[in-house]
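Entry:
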Amino acid sequence: MFERDRAAAGAGIVLDEVSGGRAVARMKVTEEMANAHGIGHGGYVFLLADVAFSYACNSYGPIALAQGAQITFLAPAQLGDELVAEAAERTLAGRQGVYDVTVRTAAGAVVAEFRGQSVLVAGVPHSS
């Protein structure tokens, strides 16, 4: 699945870990990701969190999509920061799941908290 993820590749996102209900992804904040204030654009922070969420909720095989997500920005992402997003499943009930993602700098400072809700849309695994 990651090989076909053009959005993640375009942002330079690397997937470090995927296991049942969990995923870790990272991304370096580049100058191209700066907003008008000279800090990392929140859209890229959201993208990183969403990628980790996506791989966590798809880690079991059947296709899962986001049905909703929200993010709280707690600190600015600085240019040059290496951000790490760690997604963890909170609950899985029937076809629906809830996942929390914490985005931190490599030094451990929390940049954002993301919560995503997933829904299984098919009972078959992803094609290769």
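Residues 92 and 98 are 7 Å apart (CA to CA).
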